[in-house]
Amino acid sequence: MIISNDRLRDIGEFIPQPDDDILICRCEEITKGEIRRACHDGIFTMEEMRRYLRNGMGLCQGQTCSKLVKGIMARELKISPLDLEPATSRAPMRPIEMEIYARDGGNVG
Amino acid sequence: MNRYDVVIVGAGPAGLSAAIEAAKNGMKVVVFDENSKPGGQLFKQIHKFFGSKEHKAKIRGFKIGEELLKEAYDLGVEVVLNAIVLSLHGEKELTVKVNDEVRHVKGDAVIIATGASENMVTFRGWTLPGVIGAGAAQTMMNLNKVRPGNKILMLGSGNVGLVVSFQLMQAGCEVVGLVDAAPRIGGYGVHAAKVARTGVPFYLSHTIVEAEGTDHVTGVTIAQVDEKFQFIPETEKHFDVDTICLAVGLSPMSQLLKNAGCKIVEDPKRGGVVPEVDELGMTSIPGVFAAGDVSGIEEASSAMIEGRISGAAVSEYLGYITKEELEEKIKVNEAALDSLRQGMFAPKNRGKLVEKTDEGIDVSMNLLKKGFVADEEIERFPGVTHRVGIHPVMECTQNIPCNPCQEACKKGCISIGSNITSLPIVVENSSCINCGMCVASCSGQAIFLVDEDLGDGMATVTLPYEFIPLPKEGTKGKGLGRDGKPVCEAEVVSVKNMKAFDKTNLLTIKVPKEYAMKARFFKAV
């Protein structure tokens, strides 16, 4: 049940909060206010949020912030966090040097 | 491509147990772990574990890690460290970064035992250096021998918060307080009690307002919250601290399973985003299993059993053992797992207020709110009795899965019975010989040997002591109550340490006899 995808739903006006400047995603330096505002820009899923703001795309790959982002989005969208699907997990699971990744020859030879 | 019968990701309690079981059944096993040391969280657990004797209770966590690792190596398990698994595909092919190359590995079966990571909470200043996870603090002090700070505030009263607070004090830090937004302490009462009796205050229904400092933590403000977790004005309390530890829960690291295409569910009772698994731990992809915290947050003891089950399941899946053999193994392990999942802290009771013990005794509310059983509550528990001469006093007041004390007393003074979560009782007409084995065996440090009347108006209390410096015989000081406040004058009359005590020292203090049932800790002055 992904009701969060209903773009016609009215989530009200963006109302500034005193702690909007608190960092949520430390790796990419995304604040709470930016995440909240993005919801009002029409970002309704975690996957979209990640592409829109790059939260969870840094060194820790969302290990620290994804639960926090989910909570903030759910409150802003007035839904349960359980209704927000986690973002897709893709390889590589951990940051890796391009130099090493590029040499991946699939153990040939 | 390197091929194995089974590829295991994660060399923690679940992964190693699975590897041992699979290797025993003749499988070719490899275990990858991204850390430089194996054992997962086990090697930083310096406390004695709960559980039953068969499941390594009263052994310190790091010792369990050493035992598992030795067993795995002896069975020919290949453990590859500093090995970062980058991806897992449905065909059970993995890419693994080892040193500066990417290896491709294929298993006929895969067991994911990647464990969990620490949750964070945000407040003003939470990104300042000095705000760290409680697990990180434990890694610093217990693995790397670095004290994380000097004055510390702990947020979170689950077992992690309680155990790490105690260990911080063992490392010589001052813990200024233990804070939790919940109205009740989340972890085992015995863990809370051993922290409280040293004088650490508990602030329940409180949380952090702000961490102060410009380039590192110099202080913290907490405030009380209402039932909706909103701050109550004018309840702020300030502490000068240099470190704030966060112990606010764990989240399963299930990304690899998601990456492979396993069916994933979000289940708050299991700690977050977890794979759908059958009773053997098999995910929606045949041959891909999950074991340990990655499939639901529990204790390390459960993770070890789950690992064993999945190791057996994988052996049957690939034809190394018969269905009957598997069933036999499952029966034993399921029973053990089931016994660990009983009692007040069973997964089914998560978040619930349990008001009565299984024995029908009112649970100590003071313990849940302040971290210690009040003097007027303690007498109602069956481990607390009075008799002439020396006798054990077991301040074990919650149904938790643990029974080493029963075995420890060779004189049969202590009985728990077959139900591992029952409260220990003092057996009538048994004779205590003051050996101290029960005191040292209690992982919760909740057993004391008391002689209530020496005949000269004095009494002795023998208590477990795991701090340095160790007071010497003749040291004078104060007897502290269960709340950590000084209640009387006290003098150390004996300090015992034997190999069998496994580094738990037994301190016997002499106190005025009216404090025999009150003094539970010693502080030199």
Features:
heterodimer; A: 109 residues; mainly alpha; Arc Repressor Mutant, subunit A; two-stranded antiparallel ribbon; 2 strands; elongated; B: 525 residues; alpha/beta; FAD/NAD(P)-binding domain; 3 domains; seven-stranded mixed β-sheet; seven-stranded antiparallel β-sheet; 12 helices; 28 strands
Task: Provide a descriptive summary of the structure in words.
The complex is a heterodimer of chains A (109) and B (525). Chain A has 109 residues and is mainly alpha-helical. Helix content of chain A is 31%, strand content 5%. Chain A has a two-stranded antiparallel sheet with strand order 1-2. In chain A, β1 (23-25) and β2 form a beta hairpin. In chain A, α1 packs across α3. Chain A is elongated. Chain B is α/β, with parallel strands linked by helices. Chain B has three domains: 2-117 and 251-340, FAD/NAD(P)-binding domain; 120-246, FAD/NAD(P)-binding domain; 376-524, no CATH class. In chain B, 22% of the residues lie in helices and 27% in strands. In chain B, strands 1, 2, 3, 4, 5, 6 and 19 form a seven-stranded mixed β-sheet that branches. A seven-stranded antiparallel β-sheet of chain B has the order 20-23-24-27-26-25-28. Chain B has a five-stranded parallel β-sheet with strand order 8-15-9-10-11. The radius of gyration of chain B is 24 Å and the shape is globular. The model of chain B has no long low-confidence stretch (mean pLDDT 95).
